[in-house]
């Protein structure tokens, strides 16, 4: 009798457990890796993450019965850590796409590895020009962000035409990203031959003051700066330490907006220091808001467990670009049939991104076939944004980023 009871009990437990195991097998997960500097430039990493999550939330994080999950991977701005994340991604049987972060150097240094291993990389921030221009149609990197091959032209145009700066000086971080911008800006200035100065990561205030003091003794009338938030704050505060009549206007790349920059330079900005920087031409602060903008804001405010207000983000461009880029990804996925073979999925998504069949409404613009197969005759094939999508901006006293609309008839 006792043995019969035991058998019946085990049978009941088995029957009760079976539907649960069956249901768990029905839930399939595909992962999106986000490789970014969550340690030193958290503000941009967080903004990108929330942009992706907002776009995914619009489809309940589910495509073709696959649950989409975002995994944070903190590269700390280190190329070797980024490479480690890429290797982990390639070993993950559920990994679908690899989303890049703020720093360009990890993707410039690892570009051959990325493409030879068919790692599908989407870039909502890193601006290094060479990243998307792997000399092959087997190019696995797609960008919706500022592109250095165009950013330098916008910055040079603003410096010469708006600020009337006839003697510019380039102040660049000594990294592959800085060198990429040096090449572009020298071309952008044409017959004007700007002086070039280099600085290293972790430059301190006294060294920055010394460099700026030496620059002030040159014919330079303005500074074009390429660096990130940490060093950017050091140089801005160093410039603010000089008398107002001795300061030079600064035209910066957008790297300064990727961290907690404004909090560290607020007093300098309020002292009327001239600082402008490049951004893409969309702002959540622009009124009246479109229906799409309102819907995106509402969706982001309903995210669980952590809602986000896009208007309060310190690095709003990260959200904007990541949202639009994820929408393009989802359109690409809608054109294929997902399987449990992620290598095949990535290959099919790559092809779909190069052949999007439907327009995609994004925050920055409506995208009509933004990507194509890369070739030497179409070097912008994997760039979703163009020169006309880039604007200059400045900080308001409350730290909000104000986009300056391009003048009508503006040309490169």
UniProtKB/TrEMBL annotation:
Keywords: Signal
Keyword Signal included in the entry's annotation: yes
Domain Leucine-binding protein: 47-364
Entry-linked CDD domains: PBP1_ABC_ligand_binding-like (cd19979)
Cleaved signal peptide residues: 1-22
InterPro entries: BCAA_transport, Leu-bd, Peripla_BP_I
The keyword Transit peptide is assigned to this record: no
Similarity comment: family membership: Belongs to the leucine-binding protein family.
Designated name of the protein: Leucine-binding protein domain-containing protein
């Amino acid at each position: 009798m006792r043995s019969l009871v035991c058998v019946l009990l085990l049978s009941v437990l088995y029957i009760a457990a079976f539907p649960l195991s069956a249901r768990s097998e029905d839930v399939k997960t595909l992962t999106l890796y986000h490789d970014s500097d969550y340690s030193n430039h958290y503000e941009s990493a967080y903004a990108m993450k929330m942009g992706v999550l907002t776009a995914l939330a619009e489809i309940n994080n589910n495509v073709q019965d696959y649950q989409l999950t975002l995994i944070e991977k903190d590269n700390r701005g280190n190329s070797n850590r980024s490479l480690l994340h890429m290797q982990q991604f390639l070993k993950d049987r559920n990994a679908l796409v690899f989303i890049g972060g703020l720093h360009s150097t990890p993707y410039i240094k690892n570009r051959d590895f990325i493409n030879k291993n068919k790692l599908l990389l989407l870039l909502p921030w890193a601006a290094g020009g060479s990243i998307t221009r792997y000399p092959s149609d087997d190019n696995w990197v797609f960008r919706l962000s500022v592109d250095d091959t165009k950013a330098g032209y916008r910055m040079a145009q603003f410096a010469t035409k708006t600020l009337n700066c006839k003697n510019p000086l380039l102040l660049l971080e000594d990294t592959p990203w800085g060198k990429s911008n040096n090449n572009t800006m020298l071309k952008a200035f044409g017959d004007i031959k700007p002086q070039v100065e280099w600085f290293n990561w972790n430059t301190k205030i006294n060294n920055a003051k010394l460099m700026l003091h030496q620059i002030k003794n040159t014919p330079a009338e303005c500074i074009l700066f390429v660096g990130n938030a940490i060093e950017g704050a050091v140089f801005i505060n160093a410039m603010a330490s000089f008398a107002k009549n001795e300061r030079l206007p600064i035209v910066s790349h957008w790297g300064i907006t990727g961290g907690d920059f404004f909090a560290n330079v607020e007093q300098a900005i309020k002292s009327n220091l001239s600082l402008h920087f490049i951004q893409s031409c969309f702002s959540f602060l622009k009124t009246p808001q479109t229906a799409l903008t309102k819907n995106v804001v509402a969706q982001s405010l309903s995210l669980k467990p952590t809602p986000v207000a896009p208007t309060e983000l310190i690095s709003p461009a990260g959200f904007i670009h990541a949202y639009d880029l994820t929408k393009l990804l989802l359109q690409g996925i809608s054109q294929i049939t997902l399987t449990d073979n992620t290598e095949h999925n990535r290959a099919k998504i790559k092809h779909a991104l190069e052949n999007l069949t439907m327009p995609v409404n994004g925050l920055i613009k409506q995208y009509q076939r933004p990507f194509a197969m890369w070739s030497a005759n179409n070097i912008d094939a994997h760039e979703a944004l163009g020169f006309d999508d880039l604007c200059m901006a400045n900080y308001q006293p409350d730290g909000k980023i104000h986009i300056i609309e391009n003048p009508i008839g503006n040309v490169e």
